[in-house]
Amino acid sequence: NAGVTQTPKFRVLKTGQSMTLLCAQDMNHEYMYWYRQDPGMGLRLIHYSVGEGTTAKGEVPDGYNVSRLKKQNFLLGLESAAPSQTSVYFCASSGQGLYGYTFGSGTRLTVV
Amino acid sequence: GNSVTQMEGPVTLSEEAFLTINCTYTATGYPSLFWYVQYPGEGLQLLLKATKADDKGSNKGFEATYRKETTSFHLEKGSVQVSDSAVYFCARAIQGNTPLVFGKGTRLSVIA
């Protein structure tokens, strides 16, 4: 099925460990986004990309890095995980124009 | 600044009751406005949208009208069902496909 696929779906990390979250879309969308969702905070933008090879900071970029080497993939990295990064992470993509986003089903990350 | 404010939840309604979830925005220019819905354990799905003043977005019995004079985009449904239980997010984007800014979400529970 066409859409946005996130891997993994669940992960538990120890403080200081690193990991990469993968987002893949098969809709040939130019724009891709990483959000985090926390109780009472809604969705906050971490980083985004307006095309292959580009990235930009969002509202809460500290502690995260991203890469968009291929148009269909957008990677979110945590170099040294902290308990404050415990959250649900959502990737989304969109095409040209304001047609709204397609979201992945999320990655639930717990840092202990 | 540019922000989206939603009424705080949770909202609990009986089946067939009338639903209103308030959303107001601040933004420079004329943003496009969206409502997204998140069912338990899933990512967000686009529910409806409006791109200019006085536009009415509608889908699955839900409606919202873009009110420029009151900077509002309230979500309404005449008769809710148990299956409408979810978290609803209001969002806005400035023209040019800039990243969406989301409200904090409103949890709706519909009881039979």
Q: Secondary-structure map with pairings?
A:
The complex is a heterodimer of chains A (112) and B (112).
Chain A lengths: L3 E4 L2 E4 L5 E7 L5 E8 L3 E8 L6 E2 L7 E3 L5 E6 L8 E8 L7 E2 L3 E5 L1
Chain B lengths: L2 E4 L4 E4 L4 E3 L1 E4 L5 E7 L5 E7 L5 E4 L2 E4 L9 E3 L8 E8 L7 E2 L3 E6 L1
Parallel strand pairs in B: 2-12
Antiparallel strand pairs in B: 1-4, 3-9, 5-6, 5-10, 7-8, 8-9, 10-11, 10-12
Termini Cα gap of chain B: 41 Å
Q: DSSP helix count of chain A?
A: 0
Kindly report how far apart the N and C termini of chain A lie.
Answer: 35 Å
Principal-axes shape call of chain B: globular
Summarize the helix and strand pattern of chain B as letters.
EEEEEEEEEEEE
Largest interface: A-B, 24 and 22 residues
- How would a textbook summarize the main sheet of chain B? 6 strands, mixed
- Tell me the helix content of chain A: under 10%
Structural class of chain B: mainly beta
Question: Could you characterize what this model shows?
Answer:
- The complex is a heterodimer of chains A (112) and B (112).
- By secondary structure, chain A is mainly beta.
- Chain A is 0% helix and 51% strand.
- Chain A has no helices and eleven strands.
- In chain A, strands 2, 4, 5, 6, 9, 10 and 11 form a seven-stranded mixed sheet that branches. A four-stranded antiparallel sheet of chain A has the order 1-3-8-7, with no helix packed on it.
- In chain B, the strands form three sheets. In chain B, strands 2, 5, 6, 10, 11 and 12 form a six-stranded mixed sheet that branches.
- Chain A binds chain B through residues 4, 31, 33, 35, 40-43, 45, 48, 50, 58, 90, 92, 94, 96-98, 100-101, 103-106, and chain B through 32, 34, 36, 41-46, 49, 51, 89, 93, 95, 97, 99-105.
